[in-house]
Amino acid sequence: MQLPQVLTGWDKPTAFPGDAAPALSAYGFGLFVEDHPGFGRIVSHSGGYPGFGSNMRWHPASGTGVIALGNSTYAAMMALATRLLDAVLRHREPPEHGYSVALAPAAGHEPGPWPETLAAREAANALLRSWADAEAVRLFSPNVAHDAPFEERQQVIAMIRDRIGDFRDDEHRPPEFDTPAHCRWWLAGERGVVQAQIQLNPERPPRVQSLTLAVPPAAGSPLGDTLAAILAWLNGTDCDWPAAIPVAETVDAGLLARRLRMASAWAGPSRLGAYRAGDGAASVAVELVGEHATLTLTLVVDPASGLLRQGDILP
Protein backbone atom coordinates (compact mmCIF):
# COMPACT_ATOMS: atom_id res chain seq x y z
CA MET A 1 0.00 0.00 0.00
CA GLN A 2 2.95 2.33 0.59
CA LEU A 3 4.64 1.69 -2.76
CA PRO A 4 3.93 4.18 -5.59
CA GLN A 5 1.51 2.66 -8.09
CA VAL A 6 0.27 5.69 -10.06
CA LEU A 7 2.53 8.69 -10.59
CA THR A 8 0.75 11.99 -9.91
CA GLY A 9 3.68 14.29 -10.70
CA TRP A 10 6.49 16.42 -9.33
CA ASP A 11 5.16 18.87 -6.76
CA LYS A 12 6.40 21.28 -4.19
CA PRO A 13 6.50 19.09 -1.07
CA THR A 14 3.21 19.24 0.81
CA ALA A 15 4.76 17.61 3.87
CA PHE A 16 7.35 20.37 4.27
CA PRO A 17 6.03 23.65 2.84
CA GLY A 18 9.28 25.53 3.46
CA ASP A 19 11.32 23.30 1.15
CA ALA A 20 11.90 24.51 -2.38
CA ALA A 21 13.03 21.21 -3.95
CA PRO A 22 10.26 19.32 -5.74
CA ALA A 23 9.03 15.95 -4.48
CA LEU A 24 7.82 12.97 -6.46
CA SER A 25 4.16 12.39 -5.60
CA ALA A 26 2.23 9.22 -6.30
CA TYR A 27 -0.68 7.11 -5.17
CA GLY A 28 -0.24 3.65 -3.71
CA PHE A 29 -3.00 1.17 -2.95
CA GLY A 30 -5.21 3.55 -0.97
CA LEU A 31 -2.42 5.81 0.35
CA PHE A 32 -0.64 8.91 -0.90
CA VAL A 33 3.12 8.54 -1.28
CA GLU A 34 5.62 11.39 -1.47
CA ASP A 35 9.38 10.99 -1.93
CA HIS A 36 10.90 14.05 -0.27
CA PRO A 37 14.48 14.95 -1.38
CA GLY A 38 15.67 15.47 2.20
CA PHE A 39 13.63 13.08 4.32
CA GLY A 40 12.71 10.32 1.91
CA ARG A 41 9.29 8.73 1.79
CA ILE A 42 6.25 10.29 3.45
CA VAL A 43 2.95 8.37 3.39
CA SER A 44 -0.40 9.96 4.16
CA HIS A 45 -4.16 10.01 3.79
CA SER A 46 -7.13 12.01 5.04
CA GLY A 47 -10.52 10.78 6.14
CA GLY A 48 -13.79 12.21 7.35
CA TYR A 49 -17.46 11.67 8.01
CA PRO A 50 -20.28 13.79 9.36
CA GLY A 51 -18.94 14.76 12.78
CA PHE A 52 -15.17 14.46 12.29
CA GLY A 53 -12.20 14.92 10.01
CA SER A 54 -8.73 13.40 10.20
CA ASN A 55 -5.32 13.10 8.58
CA MET A 56 -2.58 10.56 9.14
CA ARG A 57 0.94 10.81 7.80
CA TRP A 58 4.12 8.96 8.67
CA HIS A 59 7.81 8.68 7.89
CA PRO A 60 8.60 4.96 7.49
CA ALA A 61 12.38 5.29 7.73
CA SER A 62 12.30 6.71 11.28
CA GLY A 63 9.11 5.03 12.47
CA THR A 64 7.54 8.43 13.16
CA GLY A 65 3.86 9.09 12.57
CA VAL A 66 1.28 11.80 13.22
CA ILE A 67 -2.51 11.56 13.44
CA ALA A 68 -4.61 14.71 13.62
CA LEU A 69 -8.32 14.52 14.53
CA GLY A 70 -10.91 17.27 14.35
CA ASN A 71 -14.45 17.12 15.78
CA SER A 72 -16.27 18.91 12.98
CA THR A 73 -17.67 17.49 9.77
CA TYR A 74 -14.86 16.74 7.31
CA ALA A 75 -12.45 18.94 9.27
CA ALA A 76 -9.37 19.75 7.16
CA MET A 77 -6.61 18.35 9.37
CA MET A 78 -3.84 17.89 6.78
CA ALA A 79 -2.21 21.28 7.46
CA LEU A 80 -1.87 20.58 11.18
CA ALA A 81 -0.59 17.03 10.66
CA THR A 82 1.94 18.38 8.13
CA ARG A 83 3.25 20.95 10.59
CA LEU A 84 3.52 18.37 13.37
CA LEU A 85 5.47 15.84 11.31
CA ASP A 86 7.67 18.65 9.96
CA ALA A 87 8.52 19.79 13.48
CA VAL A 88 9.25 16.29 14.75
CA LEU A 89 11.53 15.29 11.88
CA ARG A 90 13.47 18.56 11.86
CA HIS A 91 14.24 18.39 15.57
CA ARG A 92 14.93 14.71 16.08
CA GLU A 93 18.34 13.07 15.94
CA PRO A 94 18.66 11.36 12.52
CA PRO A 95 19.87 7.75 12.36
CA GLU A 96 23.59 7.17 11.93
CA HIS A 97 23.34 6.33 8.22
CA GLY A 98 20.56 8.74 7.32
CA TYR A 99 16.84 8.24 6.94
CA SER A 100 17.20 5.30 4.56
CA VAL A 101 17.75 3.05 7.59
CA ALA A 102 14.63 1.94 9.43
CA LEU A 103 14.78 2.18 13.21
CA ALA A 104 13.84 -0.84 15.30
CA PRO A 105 11.60 -0.25 18.32
CA ALA A 106 13.43 0.14 21.60
CA ALA A 107 13.91 -3.08 23.53
CA GLY A 108 11.26 -3.71 26.15
CA HIS A 109 8.77 -1.23 24.68
CA GLU A 110 6.74 -3.49 22.42
CA PRO A 111 3.17 -3.81 23.74
CA GLY A 112 1.79 -7.23 24.44
CA PRO A 113 -1.68 -8.46 23.50
CA TRP A 114 -4.76 -7.19 25.27
CA PRO A 115 -6.23 -9.66 27.79
CA GLU A 116 -9.39 -9.41 25.66
CA THR A 117 -7.39 -10.61 22.64
CA LEU A 118 -6.21 -13.70 24.49
CA ALA A 119 -9.74 -14.40 25.70
CA ALA A 120 -11.14 -13.90 22.18
CA ARG A 121 -8.69 -16.44 20.77
CA GLU A 122 -9.87 -19.02 23.28
CA ALA A 123 -13.49 -18.23 22.44
CA ALA A 124 -12.76 -18.45 18.70
CA ASN A 125 -11.06 -21.81 19.21
CA ALA A 126 -14.14 -23.07 21.02
CA LEU A 127 -16.32 -21.92 18.11
CA LEU A 128 -14.08 -23.70 15.63
CA ARG A 129 -14.44 -26.93 17.60
CA SER A 130 -18.20 -26.63 18.09
CA TRP A 131 -20.06 -23.78 16.42
CA ALA A 132 -22.92 -22.01 18.21
CA ASP A 133 -24.61 -19.01 16.59
CA ALA A 134 -25.44 -17.44 19.97
CA GLU A 135 -21.79 -17.53 21.00
CA ALA A 136 -20.74 -16.17 17.60
CA VAL A 137 -23.13 -13.22 17.97
CA ARG A 138 -21.65 -12.46 21.39
CA LEU A 139 -18.04 -12.72 20.21
CA PHE A 140 -18.21 -11.00 16.81
CA SER A 141 -19.08 -7.45 15.81
CA PRO A 142 -22.07 -7.29 13.41
CA ASN A 143 -19.93 -6.87 10.27
CA VAL A 144 -18.55 -10.43 10.60
CA ALA A 145 -21.86 -12.04 9.66
CA HIS A 146 -22.23 -9.57 6.78
CA ASP A 147 -18.73 -10.34 5.49
CA ALA A 148 -19.52 -14.07 5.42
CA PRO A 149 -22.74 -15.63 6.82
CA PHE A 150 -22.33 -17.97 9.77
CA GLU A 151 -23.51 -20.92 7.66
CA GLU A 152 -20.75 -20.24 5.15
CA ARG A 153 -18.17 -20.01 7.92
CA GLN A 154 -19.27 -23.37 9.28
CA GLN A 155 -18.81 -24.86 5.82
CA VAL A 156 -15.25 -23.51 5.72
CA ILE A 157 -14.49 -25.04 9.12
CA ALA A 158 -15.89 -28.39 7.95
CA MET A 159 -13.78 -28.18 4.80
CA ILE A 160 -10.62 -27.59 6.83
CA ARG A 161 -11.44 -30.51 9.13
CA ASP A 162 -12.03 -32.73 6.11
CA ARG A 163 -8.65 -31.81 4.60
CA ILE A 164 -6.34 -31.83 7.63
CA GLY A 165 -8.33 -33.94 10.11
CA ASP A 166 -9.51 -32.98 13.60
CA PHE A 167 -7.39 -29.99 14.58
CA ARG A 168 -6.09 -28.45 17.78
CA ASP A 169 -3.64 -25.69 18.71
CA ASP A 170 -0.20 -26.35 17.24
CA GLU A 171 1.94 -26.87 20.33
CA HIS A 172 5.12 -26.18 18.36
CA ARG A 173 4.17 -22.67 17.21
CA PRO A 174 3.17 -20.05 19.78
CA PRO A 175 0.59 -17.41 18.84
CA GLU A 176 1.85 -14.18 17.25
CA PHE A 177 0.54 -10.66 17.80
CA ASP A 178 1.12 -7.95 15.22
CA THR A 179 -0.71 -5.47 17.48
CA PRO A 180 -2.34 -5.76 20.92
CA ALA A 181 -5.68 -6.30 19.15
CA HIS A 182 -4.47 -8.96 16.69
CA CYS A 183 -3.65 -12.65 17.07
CA ARG A 184 -2.33 -15.20 14.58
CA TRP A 185 -2.17 -18.85 15.59
CA TRP A 186 -1.97 -22.28 14.00
CA LEU A 187 -4.34 -25.25 14.00
CA ALA A 188 -2.66 -28.63 13.56
CA GLY A 189 -4.30 -31.77 12.24
CA GLU A 190 -2.82 -35.11 11.30
CA ARG A 191 -2.67 -34.06 7.62
CA GLY A 192 -1.52 -30.46 7.90
CA VAL A 193 -1.43 -27.11 9.67
CA VAL A 194 -3.52 -24.01 8.89
CA GLN A 195 -3.32 -20.43 10.06
CA ALA A 196 -6.13 -18.64 11.91
CA GLN A 197 -6.32 -14.91 12.63
CA ILE A 198 -8.55 -12.55 14.58
CA GLN A 199 -8.60 -8.77 14.79
CA LEU A 200 -10.46 -6.94 17.56
CA ASN A 201 -12.20 -3.59 17.21
CA PRO A 202 -11.93 -0.61 19.64
CA GLU A 203 -15.33 -1.05 21.28
CA ARG A 204 -15.63 -1.30 25.05
CA PRO A 205 -15.41 -4.17 25.58
CA PRO A 206 -13.63 -5.07 22.30
CA ARG A 207 -15.25 -7.54 19.93
CA VAL A 208 -13.79 -9.61 17.11
CA GLN A 209 -14.22 -7.73 13.83
CA SER A 210 -12.53 -10.30 11.60
CA LEU A 211 -11.83 -14.03 11.66
CA THR A 212 -9.84 -15.53 8.79
CA LEU A 213 -8.88 -19.15 8.21
CA ALA A 214 -6.55 -20.59 5.61
CA VAL A 215 -8.16 -23.42 3.63
CA PRO A 216 -5.81 -26.02 2.10
CA PRO A 217 -6.49 -27.19 -1.47
CA ALA A 218 -8.21 -30.53 -1.92
CA ALA A 219 -6.10 -33.40 -3.20
CA GLY A 220 -6.71 -33.91 -6.92
CA SER A 221 -8.10 -30.39 -7.44
CA PRO A 222 -6.48 -28.08 -10.03
CA LEU A 223 -5.03 -25.96 -7.21
CA GLY A 224 -3.78 -29.01 -5.30
CA ASP A 225 -2.26 -30.59 -8.41
CA THR A 226 -0.50 -27.33 -9.35
CA LEU A 227 0.94 -26.95 -5.86
CA ALA A 228 2.19 -30.54 -5.82
CA ALA A 229 3.72 -30.20 -9.30
CA ILE A 230 5.54 -26.97 -8.44
CA LEU A 231 6.94 -28.44 -5.23
CA ALA A 232 8.19 -31.52 -7.10
CA TRP A 233 9.77 -29.28 -9.75
CA LEU A 234 11.50 -27.09 -7.15
CA ASN A 235 12.95 -30.17 -5.48
CA GLY A 236 14.18 -31.49 -8.84
CA THR A 237 16.96 -30.36 -11.18
CA ASP A 238 15.09 -29.06 -14.24
CA CYS A 239 15.47 -25.26 -14.55
CA ASP A 240 12.83 -24.66 -17.24
CA TRP A 241 9.18 -24.15 -16.38
CA PRO A 242 7.43 -27.56 -16.48
CA ALA A 243 5.22 -28.01 -19.52
CA ALA A 244 2.83 -30.01 -17.31
CA ILE A 245 1.91 -26.82 -15.39
CA PRO A 246 -0.17 -24.66 -17.78
CA VAL A 247 -0.09 -20.89 -17.26
CA ALA A 248 -2.41 -18.10 -18.36
CA GLU A 249 -1.32 -15.79 -21.18
CA THR A 250 -0.66 -13.01 -18.70
CA VAL A 251 1.98 -15.07 -16.84
CA ASP A 252 5.64 -14.85 -17.91
CA ALA A 253 6.59 -18.47 -17.21
CA GLY A 254 10.30 -17.84 -17.77
CA LEU A 255 10.43 -14.97 -15.29
CA LEU A 256 8.36 -16.89 -12.74
CA ALA A 257 10.62 -19.94 -13.12
CA ARG A 258 13.75 -17.87 -12.48
CA ARG A 259 12.22 -16.21 -9.43
CA LEU A 260 11.09 -19.50 -7.89
CA ARG A 261 14.34 -21.25 -8.75
CA MET A 262 16.50 -18.55 -7.13
CA ALA A 263 14.46 -18.72 -3.93
CA SER A 264 14.53 -22.51 -3.95
CA ALA A 265 18.31 -22.58 -4.37
CA TRP A 266 18.64 -20.36 -1.33
CA ALA A 267 16.25 -22.41 0.84
CA GLY A 268 17.33 -25.88 -0.27
CA PRO A 269 15.10 -28.97 -0.66
CA SER A 270 11.69 -28.13 0.75
CA ARG A 271 8.51 -29.68 2.08
CA LEU A 272 5.05 -28.23 2.59
CA GLY A 273 4.56 -26.45 5.90
CA ALA A 274 1.67 -24.47 7.31
CA TYR A 275 -1.04 -23.02 5.07
CA ARG A 276 -1.06 -19.27 5.73
CA ALA A 277 -3.92 -18.11 3.48
CA GLY A 278 -6.19 -19.19 0.64
CA ASP A 279 -9.75 -20.22 -0.13
CA GLY A 280 -8.89 -23.84 -0.95
CA ALA A 281 -10.15 -23.63 -4.53
CA ALA A 282 -8.48 -20.78 -6.40
CA SER A 283 -5.76 -19.44 -4.08
CA VAL A 284 -3.21 -20.70 -1.59
CA ALA A 285 -0.30 -19.32 0.41
CA VAL A 286 1.77 -22.07 1.98
CA GLU A 287 5.10 -22.29 3.73
CA LEU A 288 7.88 -24.23 2.02
CA VAL A 289 10.13 -25.45 4.81
CA GLY A 290 13.59 -25.78 3.29
CA GLU A 291 16.87 -27.11 4.56
CA HIS A 292 18.24 -23.58 5.08
CA ALA A 293 15.20 -21.28 5.14
CA THR A 294 11.41 -21.16 5.10
CA LEU A 295 9.66 -19.50 2.15
CA THR A 296 6.02 -18.64 1.47
CA LEU A 297 4.69 -19.70 -1.93
CA THR A 298 1.49 -18.05 -3.20
CA LEU A 299 -0.52 -19.37 -6.15
CA VAL A 300 -3.73 -18.36 -7.89
CA VAL A 301 -5.24 -20.98 -10.20
CA ASP A 302 -8.40 -20.90 -12.31
CA PRO A 303 -10.45 -23.79 -10.85
CA ALA A 304 -12.27 -24.34 -14.16
CA SER A 305 -9.33 -24.39 -16.59
CA GLY A 306 -6.48 -25.26 -14.23
CA LEU A 307 -4.39 -22.37 -15.60
CA LEU A 308 -1.93 -20.76 -13.20
CA ARG A 309 -2.83 -17.07 -13.11
CA GLN A 310 -0.38 -15.83 -10.51
CA GLY A 311 2.59 -17.08 -8.55
CA ASP A 312 5.16 -15.62 -6.19
CA ILE A 313 7.59 -16.69 -3.49
CA LEU A 314 8.86 -14.66 -0.54
CA PRO A 315 11.03 -15.22 2.55
Q: Helix-strand pattern, N to C?
A: EEEEEEHHHHHEEEEHHEEEE
Query: How many alpha or pi helices?
Result: 7
Query: What would the CATH topology of the largest domain be?
Result: Nuclear Transport Factor 2, Chain: A
Low-confidence stretches: 96-107
User: What is the beta-strand fraction?
Assistant: 25-35%
Shape: globular
Calculate the mean pLDDT score and round it.
88
Assign the CATH architecture of the largest domain.
Roll
Largest sheet: 6 strands, antiparallel
Classify the secondary structure makeup into a structural class.
Answer: alpha+beta
Overall number of strands: 14
Strand arrangement within the widest β-sheet reads 1-2-3-4-5-6
What oligomeric state best describes the polypeptide chains here?
single chain
Distance between the termini: 19 Å
Question: What is the alpha-carbon Rg in Å?
Answer: 23 Å
The total number of structural domains is 3
Helix content: 25-40%
Q: Mind telling me the CATH class of the largest domain?
A: Alpha Beta
Topology:
Layout: E1 6-11, E2 23-27, E3 32-36, E4 40-49, E5 52-59, E6 64-70, H1 78-91, H2 115-129, H3 133-139, H4 143-147, H5 150-164, E7 168-169, E8 182-189, E9 192-200, E10 208-213, H6 222-234, H7 253-267, E11 270-277, E12 283-290, E13 294-301, E14 308-314
Antiparallel strand pairs: 1-2, 2-3, 3-4, 4-5, 5-6, 7-8, 8-9, 9-10, 11-12, 12-13, 13-14
